[in-house]
Write a structure and sequence with these properties.
Blueprint: H1 13-16, H2 25-47
């Protein structure tokens, strides 16, 4: 879904280590928050001149 919208994450290791329950509203909000954080950090690292791999 993210790729379809032109959004790329530079890593998903942390997202794969956390489980979410589809029927838990709080889990949906937590997942959205994690993804938002990863998008923000991926974009920050992509434009940062002192990018560390």
């Amino acid at each position: 879904m993210l790729a379809r919208e032109g959004i790329a994450l530079d890593g998903v290791v942390l997202l794969r280590r956390v489980s979410f329950q589809a029927d838990e509203p709080k889990d949906a909000l937590a997942l959205a928050s994690y993804i938002d954080t990863h998008i923000t950090e991926s974009r920050r690292r992509a434009v940062s001149p002192d990018r560390v791999p």
